[in-house]
Structures are given as C-alpha cells and as structure tokens.
Amino acid sequence: MLIAPSILAADFGKLKQECMMVNESKADWFHLDIMDGMFVPNISFGTPIIKAIAKTATKPLDIHLMIVNPDRYLDLFINLGADVLTVHYEACNHLHRTLEYIKSKGVKAGVAINPHTNVSSLESIIDMIDILCLMSVNPGFGGQKFIQSTYEKLTQAKSMIDNSFCRTLIEIDGGVSFTNASRLQELGADVLVAGSYVFSSKDPRLAIESLKNTHR
Prior knowledge:
The chain has 216 residues and is of the alpha/beta class. It has helices at residues 15-24, 47-56, 74-79, 95-104, 150-163, 178-186, 196-199, 204-212, and strands spanning 2-5, 30-35, 61-66, 84-88, 108-113, 131-135, 169-173, 191-194.
C-alpha cells in the first residue's frame, strides 16, 4: 500500500517543515492538487509552491490536475518534476492522446474520475493508464466525508483491471482515514491519498504509519 499525503491540507506557513515531515515519514509520494477555480469551485496553488515543494521533497511528486483543458499545461508540470501526472476524464476531449503524450515524456499517466462518472467509461483505454484515481469525495475541497459508493466503484475498477491483464494502480482520493483504509485495501486499492487525516492529526507521522500498516 502506497500512502500519498495531500499537501493541500498542510500548513503553508511552515511548508518546508511539513515537506520534511513527509520525507522522514513512511509516506511514499507527495500528492499535489492543482485547482483552477473552474473545473472545481476552488483555487489551490501553482508553480511557485510546486517549485518550493520540489526543492525539499525526496519522494515522488503525484500531481493531480483538477483544471479545464489540462493539455495546455502538461509540459509545465512535467518540467516542474511530476513523477505521476493525473488528468480528469471529465476535462479531456482527447484522453488517449493526452495519456500518450504524458507517457512519452517518461512520466506515469493517471486518470481521475469524479464520483458520478462510471468506471466503465475507461474500459477501452485502461491498459494505457498507470494510475486510476477514484475520487471518493466531490473534488475541490479537503476535509469532506467519504462517499460510500466508492467501495462498489473500487470493486468494479479492480475487476476491469484484472480482466484486462494490465498493471494499473488504483488510487483513492478523499475522506481516507484509518477507519476505511483496511477495507479499501481489501477491495484492491494500491494508493491512498490522505490530507486532513494526516495534517490535522496531533502526530502526522503516526497517522501516516497507521495507514501504511494496514494489512490485507
């Protein structure tokens, strides 16, 4: 199980310290949510913050683009150091081409789907997707309640991946905590994104460890 703390929930007044905590913890990735105020009703952070994180981070950057027409900025985020670059199915007119381009740059290509989007929408291109990100909250804000129907979608996604004999990892993003981590792993999740659960904890490292120690 890979754990990717969501920096959106961090204290930006002490960003370097927060990044150092993630470096020193049992986390595997840094999860960076990029929001434009159009695809989702919120604006997060942009290039200067990513550059600052990249200077300190010693673990892969998992960049999640919650923006309209993400193709305009693929090179920007790749050059900023993305190890995983995820676009939204709902925001891409030519998803096959977008994924091909990301992968051609040596970056893992992810696709995120909103809670209302059916997993079967990705069946024809699942073999191209390195990371399938299932949004388990409506995207745009941290600290939301986990949507229970995510369990069913996770089961469907796992079945689709297995039936296609591909190696796509399933990432769960939103409302993740120790209370649901075990079940998510049992159903086939490979990556857990956790924001508020980690950064609002009295001991963020211990919170990360509690997720990391989840066993099937």
